[in-house]
Write a structure and sequence with these properties.
Blueprint (H helix, E strand, L loop, with lengths): L3 H5 L5 E3 L5 E11 L4 E11 L2 E8 L4 E3 L2 E3 L4 H5 L3 E2 L10 H7 L14 E3 L1
Pfam families: PRC
Organism: Streptomyces litmocidini
Protein name: PRC-barrel domain-containing protein
Length: 118
């Protein structure tokens, strides 16, 4: 797993899939609130006048010179629920992001979010 200090250096760099296809630019890192470890990233995708942010898990991600390679196909990532570039993921939409990647969703005992932006 990529460490938080390492991945922060890659903001605005390319995010590519396992075949090297460019998905978009790394925008932000989200940590799992139970472990405070990097868990997902948002990737800026779309046309220059119509950008949006999609989420991609960081499990299996590797960093290279000028890019972060994720373990998910470009088409799958681009179909993920998205938010606007100035928006925040609403708590009620968080589970849909996890479902998109077939990941278990486990909010806190009192309904706390599983993801937090760092």
């Amino acid at each position: 797993m990529i460490q938080m200090a390492d991945i922060r250096e890659w903001r605005t760099h390319d995010v590519v899939d396992t075949r090297g296809h460019r998905i978009g630019d790394l925008e932000a890192i989200y940590v799992d609130t139970s472990t405070d470890q990097p868990f997902m990233a948002t990737v800026r995708v779309g046309l220059p006048t119509r950008h949006r942010l999609v989420f991609v898990p960081l499990d299996g991600a590797t960093a290279g010179p000028g890019y972060v390679k994720v373990a998910h196909d470009k088409a799958l990532v681009k179909q993920c629920p998205s938010i606007g570039t100035d928006d925040v993921l609403p708590a009620e939409d968080e589970e849909a992001v996890f479902r998109h990647y077939d990941l278990p969703y486990e909010p806190g005992a009192n309904g706390e979010r599983q993801l937090a932006r760092r």
